[in-house]
Specification:
The chain has one domain. 39% of the residues lie in helices and 0% in strands. The protein has helices at residues 8-18, 36-39, 50-56. The chain is flat, with a radius of gyration of 14 Å. The chain starts with 7 loop residues before the first helix and ends with a helix. The mean pLDDT is 85. Pfam families: adh_short_C2. InterPro entries: NAD(P)-bd_dom_sf, SDR_fam. This is Short-chain dehydrogenase/reductase SDR.
């Protein structure tokens, strides 16, 4: 996805895991990271603006 996750990015997976739809899922790791794990190339945080995230809420 090429961006840092927002709070909204986690809502769908959390609702799914809390629902009966996930009742038969056991022992899995759900990577909710926009593809960074599979790509294996994590973005540099050197120039990341945490202040922008704070303002965004």
């Amino acid at each position: 996805m090429g961006r840092v996750a927002t709070t909204e990015d986690y809502v769908g997976p959390l609702v799914f895991l809390a629902s009966d739809a996930s009742a038969f899922i056991t022992g899995q790791i759900l990577h909710v990271d926009g593809g960074w794990t599979i790509k294996g190339d994590f973005p540099s945080m050197a120039d990341y603006s945490f202040e922008t995230d704070r303002r965004r809420g």
